[in-house]
Fold these 2 entries.
Entry 1:
Amino acid sequence: MTRPTQTDTALVAYLALLTSREPAGGLLEIRYRQPDSPGRMRQHWHPAAHPRGAAREILELAERTDVYVGVAPRRHRHGGRSAIQRSWMLWADLDQTDTAAHMATLAVAPGVVVASGTAGHHHLYWPLAQPLSGPEVERANRVLARALHADTGAVLNAATILRPPGTRNFKHTPATAVTLERFEPRAHTAAQILKGLPTDPDTPTRTAAARVSTPDVLLAIEPERYVQAITGLQVPRSRKVSCPFHQDRNPSLHVYPQAAQGWACFGCGRGGSIYDLAGELWQLHTRGPEFVELRNRLRDLLLPNTTTPRHESAPTGRG
Ligand SMILES: [Zn+2]
């Protein structure tokens, strides 16, 4: 049979591209839904230098469950940002069918395109000639996502996991194929890829800028407090709660003590700040006009005038 061989070859090539010239010790993270307990995700690790072993396991698992792979190689057995030193890819998650128009605005077409098994959904990858650090890759991903009108949520996170080609998407019955639509991987520098795109996506819109001219008190709220307020879940002593974004019987969303650390789910890879949590849950973008609404709703929830903390200056323009 030729078909399994082709799938295998494509998957190995894809995995080899993710790890690229990663120095010795790098790891490929495979994460998969435990078939008999679908709320539970499990992690396996393979040496980045040997994608063949990882490919074999991915294809075996894909017979019966959803499988994902960490886009950036890990430096130790941990699925979070702290395990990442560099990424050899930029990526975007596109969920519209008219991809051509947006892609035409880019200086460099994505070298790899994977159809994720849901109609119109594609993961785009740009191989990097020089790797970027986690924070750098997140900034670059955001620039691409905005130019493409793609998902600007947790998928931009450096620790993101995506469905590798050759697997199946069990969100659908029967499960649909995750396929490699394009594989012409030529590496470019981030500067070449982002050329001509608005490069300052962290600058809020003018309206939002007026609001954030004072220190952002929302960003100073301890994660324990905002996770409780936003999700309605009590944060226990273990600091782990069930992730609201998927079935999660063994709580895998970690709530860190410090605001700067935020929250992170080791089940789905989501994580970030108070805005990332509320934005994902309320389906509001964390940039642009929707950010203003997101911020207002968070203020109403967490900083109502009657209980405004002493260090908070009154928000401008709000009653
Ligand atoms: Zn999760």
Entry 2:
Amino acid sequence: MANCGLCERDRELVEYVVEPKDEKILICKECEGKLKEPQESENYWHCLNDTMWTQEKPIQVVIYRVFSKLGWQDKLDMMYLEDDVLEWAKSGENEEKINVRDSNGNILNGGDSVTIIKDLNVKGAGFTAKQGTTVKNIKLVADDPTHIKGKVNGVEIFILSKFVKKV
Ligand SMILES: [Zn+2]
């Protein structure tokens, strides 16, 4: 009944978490194994030629990451991912290497809400982000676990992750 979300073959399926979110997809063990080093089995991934048209966002993210690692730019161009899906696909690339943590050591993910724990001067923006301000729907910064991005006073700013607390 259920087939692998990637290769569509009818096989024993396992849950695969599409980080940095906590969303899971069901894929076969062969796909799961090959996802660790997609470059090692380039021919195998032609199995994504049909599933790349899925409307399932977590699957789109995984396929995007595979194509990205393989350098299949023409396929990436064809996928037309919505902005939030694209951001998700890209954020995971960094999340695997480094965790972004708040002042209490809690791991921060894109989409989290945080509170600023001290007044922060925002360079170039001409205002102070006040202690206690809640910043919703934060974004992670590629290759930089010391900062997050979020909107304060309607302006997207960089904030040191050590000066925020997860809500
Ligand atoms: Zn599969």
